[in-house]
Structures are given as C-alpha cells and as structure tokens.
Amino acid sequence: MKVEHARMHAKHRGHEAMHAEMVLILIATLVVAQLLLVQWKQRHPRSYNMVTLFQMWVVPLYFTVKLHWWRFLVIWILFSAVTAFVTFRATRKPLVQTTPRLVYKWFLLIYKISYATGIVGYMAVMFTLFGLNLLFKIKPEDAMDFGISLLFYGLYYGVLERDFAEMCADYMASTIGFYSESGMPTKHLSDSVCAVCGQQIFVDVSEEGIIENTYRLSCNHVFHEFCIRGWCIVGKKQTCPYCKEKVDLKRMFSNPWERPHVMYGQLLDWLRYLVAWQPVIIGLVQGINYILGLE
Prior knowledge:
- It is a single chain.
- The protein is an all-alpha fold and 295 residues long.
- It has 2 domains: 46-176, no CATH class; 182-260, Herpes Virus-1 (2-Layer Sandwich), CATH 3.30.40.
- It is 67% helix and 2% strand.
- The protein has 10 helices and 2 strands; from the N terminus they run H-H-H-H-H-H-E-E-H-H-H-H.
- The protein has helices at 2-11, 15-43, 45-67, 70-90, 99-129, 140-176, 225-234, 249-252, 259-276, 278-291; strands at 214-216, 222-224.
- Strand 1 (214-216) and strand 2 form a beta hairpin.
- The longest helix has 37 residues, at 140-176.
- Keywords: Membrane, Metal-binding, Transmembrane, Transmembrane helix, Zinc, Zinc-finger.
- It is a multi-pass membrane protein.
- GO terms for molecular function: ubiquitin protein ligase activity; zinc ion binding.
C-alpha cells in the first residue's frame, strides 16, 4: 500500500504548479469574457441578444442529444414548434389585430408554468435536504433528481420564453407604430387606444372591467391590463410603450403576491449568463489548456 502511495506521489510530482496555472487561466478567462460580454451588450444590444437567444436555444439541445434526455427533447420540440408559430405571427407585416394578445397570452402562460415548476422543484430540493422525503418513503436520490429536474425545466424555459417575448414585443410594437427603439413614434396615440396592441380601450381607468381592467401609467398613457403586464413582465420592457418614461412597477403591481413575479423575472435574467455563455467559456478554457499542454 505504501509503495503504491509513493508511486502515485512520484507520478503527480510537479503537478501543483500546473494546476495553479490552470486555475489562473480559468479566472483570467472568466474576467476577460465577462468584460467583453458587458461591452458587447452595451454597444450592440441587438446582436448580443440574438446570439444569446441562439445559444440558449441550441446549447442545451446538444447536451440533451448527447446524454439521451428524451423527455426534455420532446418538451423542447413542442415548445419550439409553438413558439416558432407565435414568433412567425408576431413578425408579419401588416400585423393581424389578434396577434399581440396571442403572443402575450402564450408567453405569459409559459412564464407562469415555468414559475410554478421552478417553485415546486425548489421545494422538492429543500424537502430532500431536510429529510422530509422519508415521510413519503421516497429515496433521497430520487427526490433530489425530481427537484433538480423541475428546477432546471422552470429556469430554462423561463429564460427562453422571456427572450423570445422581448424579440416579439419589439417587432409588434414597431409594426403598430406607437413605439420605436430610438426616435419618436411614427403614429400619434389617441387617448382611447392601447399603444401595445393598437386596439380600442373601452373600460375607463376608474371602472372595474369584466375581463380586464385599464392601467394608467405615471405619464398618463393608458393601456389594457394584459397588454401592459405582458409588455413589462413578459417582454422585459421597463418604459412606457409610447413615450419611454420609466414604469413604476411597484405602483403597477400593488398586490404583494404579484411582486415575486417581477423578482423571478430578474432572477431569470441573471441566470441567462450561466446557461448561454458558461459552456462556451469553459470550452475556451479547455482549448487554451490544450494549446499550452496543460492536462
């Protein structure tokens, strides 16, 4: 036993310096990559968002096929098919009147499902850590796998649908003409028209609607409830769709039970980096180590 231990030490003698170099390369690559991504996002947000969305959509597919995660692959195909149809409808000119509601309802549905799935997955993980799974005679590894899988499903599709929703929101709003990413709107907004969907507003701000209410922002522009919620929460827009004034989300969502949806959306934005760019950065680090002969 001692002889084998000595041989092992002799075989790996001098590797400490190599491991230190590999750690330094990893840290340096992470820092440089983060700085470059931040600059790219600030200078060219459209290309950054498109490439990130493509990364988010394709990278998990590669690991799914490689690791034979067929259940995830089936859900991914169904989600991609419906989202492709919705995106196609959102990018058509002229825009069909029913398209904005269709887009926001679809992405809001996925958003709520991903939110609920993530919460259930997180609770399953915490129950397993506290040993509560034993009350139901469930093995710890099975309970943990179940929780982590649901957590991954919720976070991944939550991030993906928000990116697609933001892209569709830009296309639809610019087509309707009341919103442009830079410059003035191309059409004048009437007091009785919603700038998100371009449809008439029939319910007064002070009235209680049967299906939905009407919201008035601090800039005094009014919108359908579902439209402005989709614009702010699903489409990730924090400004008025017409005049670009900052939207006060705390004032919009006074109900404390609605605010976690806003925080959950911010969490998804933070996790985008881990899903889309972390595998690329790790692959780059491995390539540098290979070129330098560090294994």
